[in-house]
Amino acid sequence: TSSTEIVVHDAATQRLFTISSLTDVFDIINFSNPLSPSVITTVNMLPYGGITSIAVKNGIVAVASPNGTNPQGNGSVVFFDTNGVFLKQVNVGVLPDMITFTPDGTKVLTANEGEPNDAYTVDPEGSVSIIDISGGISNLTQSNVTTLSFTPFNGQEANLAVTGGRKVKSTSTLAQDLEPEYITVSADSQKAWVSCQENNAVVEINLASKTLGSIWGLGKKDMSLPGNGFDVSDNNGEILIANWPVKTYYNPDAMASFKIGNTTYLVTANEGDEKDLGGFSERMTVGANGYTLDSAVFPNASVLKASHNLGRFRVTNVNGNTDSDADFEEINALGARSFSIFNTDTKQIVYDSGDQFER
């Protein structure tokens, strides 16, 4: 009847703050003795709209809350003290899905996913909100909130594709298609990087000027190369980690950043995700009748489509048809089953864990 989706720890009070997106509450837990944690209080977030994420710093608890009456409307951030006492609520973009403080504690950031409705008739734009709390929560007003629209990225679809990102739904603008998932902030609190998971893309944000930086794609991982093997079938009764003619988008969810010398690197958790809604779905399996492989590229298509091989393996039907005919020249899947490290200056991958998780 419940879940624990996110856990954050406050070192000052030795308390845990855990959220349940099923019951829309957060628990405040006494963690001074980790062997016997106990719930101090439970805060119901339904009156505020619900809960998707939580963060704590300097005695302040920040909670991301969607719009309770209209999921495609603007959400909010609700501030509490570490005892769960309400302090303030301000509006942010549509469906704030992740919340974090900057390391210096002066700002709170939300990744506003802007997910469409199930029929895909309403598709809000993704955005990032920056809440300046340097003047204290008691003085916080809506004027301290800057929501960065992704509209300036419209028209950059070709550029994004060249760098290895993707626009999924052709009839949406790029700003609508981008769904910010996770934020990591530089150690000096000057820059932030936002993962747009389904788009296999990262957006850089200048926190000093509160402006959008560049957007770039993360490319694809060639699963046919040695060290990139994976087990493709749940229908062959065995663990068979092998190389297959598949190229996967990294599609990271969570990210972290670290600095060596003058270079900042991003570490990505390459979960993979697809757009799969009533009004639009890119989900397909290699074995599906509607997924025709180019016979020149895949002369062994019938072997690949067997259920004990790639037949039941989930892929996207949005990418891989490189010449706009009726068949696919490349098998593209979502999620690289790995973690990767990217250089934020060159935008290039410098490390991938290959098949280590798989093994």
Short description:
The chain is mainly beta and 359 residues long. It contains 3 helices and 25 strands.
Q: If you had to describe this structure to a student in words, what would you say it looks like?
A:
Helix content is 4%, strand content 38%. With 359 residues, the protein is mostly beta strands. The strands form 7 sheets. A 4-stranded antiparallel beta sheet has the order 1-2-3-4, with no helix packed on it. Strands 5-6-7-8 form a 4-stranded antiparallel beta sheet, with no helix packed on it. A 4-stranded antiparallel beta sheet has the order 9-10-11-12, with no helix packed on it. It has 3 helices and 25 strands. The protein is globular, with a radius of gyration of 22 Å. 41% of the residues are buried.
Essential attributes:
4% helix; mainly beta; 25 strands; 359 residues; 4-stranded antiparallel β-sheet; 3 helices
Helix-and-strand structural type = mainly beta
Number of DSSP strand runs: 25
Average pLDDT for all residues: 97
How far the N terminus sits from the C terminus, by CA atoms, comes to 33 Å
Topology, element by element:
Layout: E1 6-10, E2 15-20, E3 25-30, E4 38-44, E5 53-57, E6 60-65, E7 74-81, E8 86-94, E9 96-101, E10 107-112, E11 127-132, E12 145-149, H1 157-162, H2 174-177, E13 180-185, E14 191-196, E15 201-206, E16 211-217, E17 220-222, E18 247-249, E19 255-260, E20 263-269, E21 283-285, H3 301-304, E22 314-316, E23 332-334, E24 339-343, E25 349-352
Parallel strand pairs: 18-23
Antiparallel strand pairs: 1-2, 2-3, 3-4, 5-6, 6-7, 7-8, 9-10, 10-11, 11-12, 13-14, 14-15, 15-16, 17-18, 19-20, 20-24, 21-22, 24-25
